[in-house]
Structure formats: structure tokens, C-alpha cells
Design brief:
The protein has a 7-stranded mixed beta sheet, sandwiched between helices. The chain is elongated, with a radius of gyration of 22 Å. It is built from 5 helices and 7 strands. A hairpin with a 3-residue loop joins β3 (70-72) and β4 (76-81). With 178 residues, it is of the alpha/beta class. Helix content is 30%, strand content 21%.
Length: 178
């Protein structure tokens, strides 16, 4: 005796899975400082195996340009401008301007080539304010970045065009109690 079992035919229809879109975050304050909470976030993400790039445009670091990054943990690359001082003026020596331009070029290429999933651009707003990096170039980089890349932009006096483009804005304030 032969038994027949009725079975349904499975149809495998392609399902739409939306791509994860990276966020543009801004962390700003009325004063210049190093945003430790941003660095903590970068370290946490890198510790989970995600490639992270931290670029400090105005903090000097002898022999710290794109050719000599610091590697904090396995997945975090940290760069500073290859100048021996912190930049706080638009008047730069030719070798300082060259070092900053080289760092900015490296940053743009690293983002476009999809080398990192999180990119922290520290004190970027000051570099724009001092006229050292063009605001339009930053907007272009945000628009051209791979879809999944998160970016964190920091610094005081953040241009309104970047604030308008941001998905998340954090303003740090100091309050003193007498």
C-alpha cells in the first residue's frame, strides 16, 4: 500500500533587507577640549572588532602623520597632524600646512575606500573655522562616504551646514555649582 502525503511547495522569494545606514554624529561644546566620551565610544566599537579611525586635526604629534599611526587595540587607528605643536591659528608654516593637507587627504581616501566603519574627526569644526579645511569638502566627504560608515565630528563652533546634515547632535555644557 502506498500512502500519499500532501506537502506544500516552498517558494523562496527574495526578501528586501534594507541596508544599514551609518549616522553622522556631532559632539560640540563652547570650549575646546578632548571629547573623552567620543574616544571611549571609539575604543568600545574597536574592541568589538569594528575598524575605527580617529583623526585629530589640530593636535600635534611628532612623527604621527598618516605614515605613523598609533594603533590602540587591534582595530583602532589614531592619527594626529605631523607637527610638533597644537594648531590654534590660521597662520601656519608651509611644512605645517603640508602636514595638515596630507592628513586630510589620507582621511578622505580612507573613508571613500571603505577602510573603516567608524570615523572620528576631532576638532574638525575648528579646522574649518580657521580656514584650514574647506567646509564644502567636508560636506562632500559626508555625502560620498559608503552608506554604512558612521562619522563623529567634534569641536566648538560647528558650522550650521554640518549641524543640518547631522543625524545626532550632542552639545556638552559646563555648569558650575557655587
Amino acid at each position: 500500500m502506498v500512502a500519499q502525503v500532501e506537502t506544500r511547495t516552498l517558494t523562496l522569494e527574495p526578501q528586501f533587507h534594507p541596508a544599514i545606514e551609518g549616522l553622522v554624529q556631532i559632539v560640540t561644546a563652547p570650549h575646546r577640549n578632548f571629547f573623552t566620551n567620543v574616544m571611549a565610544q571609539a575604543l568600545r566599537v574597536a574592541g568589538q572588532g569594528t575598524p575605527v579611525l580617529v583623526v585629530q586635526f589640530l593636535k600635534g604629534g611628532i612623527r604621527m602623520g598618516p605614515d605613523h599611526p598609533i594603533h590602540l587595540c587591534q582595530h583602532l587607528e589614531w592619527l594626529r597632524c605631523n607637527v610638533p605643536r597644537c594648531i590654534d591659528t590660521p597662520e601656519l608654516e608651509p611644512h605645517e600646512m603640508e602636514a595638515l593637507a596630507e592628513l586630510w587627504q589620507y582621511t578622505k581616501e580612507a573613508v571613500i575606500r571603505d577602510r573603516f566603519s567608524l570615523v572620528v574627526l576631532d576638532e574638525l569644526s575648528l579646522a574649518i573655522h580657521l580656514g584650514l579645511i574647506a567646509e564644502a569638502e567636508v560636506l562632500d566627504l559626508i555625502a560620498q562616504r559608503p552608506r554604512h560608515v558612521d562619522m563623529i565630528l567634534t569641536g566648538p563652533e560647528m558650522p550650521q551646514s554640518l549641524i543640518d546634515r547631522a543625524d545626532q547632535i550632542t552639545e556638552l555644557r559646563r555648569s558650575f555649582c557655587p
